[in-house]
Design a protein that fits this description.
Layout lengths: L2 H7 L1 E4 H26 L3 E2 L3 E2 L3 H21 L9 E4 H24 L1 H15 L5 H22 L8 H5 L3
Antiparallel strand pairs: 1-4, 2-3
Helix pairs in contact: 2-3, 4-5, 5-6
Length: 170
């Protein structure tokens, strides 16, 4: 095994480190949402119902409690926690899924959800599923058209549209 291969296969991060980082991240998110929920109000008003912050407050309170429990389980240094969570090749595989998903979300703002979804589905079919381009094109366009019909025509739920839909008069 070459030194480059050994470097790629060495442990990148442990389960314990990831558990601690994720627990702290969710505690921060919970604190932010709880603070804003308190600003909006978390009480139940007679003859009106719940104030806008009631539901988010209790949901993130549960999330915060779960994060504290996960943090308490992750802090002790155990053999289980020191197991390798990922290596460099594993991180590259995760990025191969995460980065296109982020691009899809960002592209939705500029080219609309239907075109973005067609490109996203087609690209995944070709690059990861090793499907023929014509099959990927048929499936991705078919799904985009069915989704367009379902949301825009049948359910009358407008979703983000781009220049193509505008050019077609939608």
């Amino acid at each position: 095994m070459s030194s480059n291969e050994e470097a790629e296969e060495r442990p990148l991060v442990s389960h314990r480190t990831l558990d601690i980082a994720v627990a702290i991240f969710f505690l921060i998110v919970a604190a932010i949402v709880m603070t804003d929920s308190l600003r909006l109000g978390i009480s139940w008003k007679p003859n009106e119902g719940p104030q806008p912050g009631l539901f988010p407050f209790y949901i993130v309170m549960a999330m915060g409690i779960a994060s504290l429990i996960n943090l308490a389980h992750a802090l002790p240094d155990t053999a289980e926690g020191e197991k390798v969570a990922t290596t460099v090749p594993g991180l590259k595989r995760m990025a191969a899924i995460f980065v296109p998903a982020v691009v899809f979300v960002l592209a939705t703002n500029y080219i609309g959800i239907y075109v973005s979804a067609a490109i996203y589905i087609g690209a995944f079919m070709v690059f990861f599923g090793k499907f023929a381009v014509w099959k990927a094109l048929a499936v991705s366009l078919g799904i985009a058209i069915v989704n367009f019909m379902m949301f825009e025509v049948w359910f009358l739920v407008p979703l983000p549209k781009g220049p193509l839909e505008t050019a077609l008069g939608y």
